[in-house]
Amino acid sequence: MGINNQNITITKSTTTKINEVDFNNLSFGENFTDHMFECDYIDGKWTNAQVRPYGPISLDPSAKVFHYGQAIFEGMKAYKSVDGAVWLFRPEENLIRLNKSAIRLAIPEFPKDLFFDGMEILLNIDKEWIQTSEGSSMYIRPFIIATEEGVSASPAKRYKFMFILSPAQSYYSGEVKVLFADKYSRSASGGVGFAKCAGNYAGQFYPTKLANDAGYQQVVWTDSSTHENLEEAGTMNVFFRIGDTLITAPTSDRILDGITRKSVIAIAEKEGYKVEVRDISVYEVEDAAKNGTLLEMFGAGTAAVINPIVSFNFKGNDYNLPKLEDSYASSIKKKITDIQTGKVEDPFGWKYAVRSI
Ligand code: COI
């Protein structure tokens, strides 16, 4: 099967930055590979698909992305084995979610063949950059921005889709103390919380900065109408372990349908853990913390996979979580990363082998 059925133009860089990168000391999202993929939406169709040397793009200052935030993105990871095979983790899920985000932001959907051909050609060209050492992966950032010039507040007629690649190591953000939101909100019913749109993240920066200034690393977002139901942690979905039960909020139009979230649920169920997908209130968690049954809290997302939370603050009171030897978080994280990195068989069919060119 040809990988380039979409007539993607390829222009290779004559130089490489690979020797400038210290792959043992990577900061998340700060280094990019030698090439990028781009494709433009013009006159009602996606066209001009190309892989070319990584570098700045030129946009008119009136481009709608700058004024109205018509921008969506995804986060994915590729892995490479010592024998050179490259694979992705549940990539169709990212495409499905990208297109759900696109519909909500009035952006044209991106075609599946172009998505896979473009990504796989790019990964082949920058394959050297995918490291095989423990914890290494290639973070893939697909995104779409509105490029049409003009400041009228209406959906653009022209867009740019891109893939950029950033080598990543296992993500450790230190001890995470969180603050339960009781004033600010990440999303609201009927809004765009389920979409991976740029504004959802920009809107978190200020309340998160306030939390950081108060000594907390992340905010756990609550529902905007009552601030009683716990919905997401920072840029991740959030899980609670009360006794032996793992609990997470159901997805809704306020909550991102996280791919790591659904992988955590699938693994936990396969392991025989009791999993409840239901609303979980701040009071239930506070009571469980007080009576000692709150054993774990963790965030789940592509970048960190699972990020354990050591304490939370609710209405001015701090509650510490116990330090467990054999936490669900570490056991589930190991199971997911072992599948992702190919250490164990993948019983779920989540791995997608990248075609070679
Ligand atoms: C994720 O981990 O899923 C993210 O979206 C993180 C990204 C915003 C850096």
UniProtKB/TrEMBL annotation:
UniProt pathway: Amino-acid biosynthesis; L-isoleucine biosynthesis; L-isoleucine from 2-oxobutanoate: step 4/4; Amino-acid biosynthesis; L-leucine biosynthesis; L-leucine from 3-methyl-2-oxobutanoate: step 4/4; Amino-acid biosynthesis; L-valine biosynthesis; L-valine from pyruvate: step 4/4
MF terms in GO: branched-chain-amino-acid transaminase activity
Record carries keyword Transferase: yes
Catalyses which reaction(s): L-leucine + 2-oxoglutarate = 4-methyl-2-oxopentanoate + L-glutamate; L-isoleucine + 2-oxoglutarate = (S)-3-methyl-2-oxopentanoate + L-glutamate; L-valine + 2-oxoglutarate = 3-methyl-2-oxobutanoate + L-glutamate
Gene3D superfamilies: 3.30.470.10, D-amino Acid Aminotransferase, subunit A, domain 2
Entries under Pfam families matching the protein: Aminotran_4
Membrane-traversing stretches: none
EC number assigned by the record: 2.6.1.42
Cofactor: pyridoxal 5'-phosphate
Keyword terms: Amino-acid biosynthesis, Aminotransferase, Branched-chain amino acid biosynthesis, Pyridoxal phosphate, Transferase
Family to which the UniProt record says this protein belongs: Belongs to the class-IV pyridoxal-phosphate-dependent aminotransferase family.
PANTHER family per the UniProt record, alphabetical: BRANCHED-CHAIN-AMINO-ACID AMINOTRANSFERASE (PTHR11825:SF44), SUBGROUP IIII AMINOTRANSFERASE (PTHR11825)
Protein's job: Acts on leucine, isoleucine and valine.
Protein name, as recorded: Branched-chain-amino-acid aminotransferase
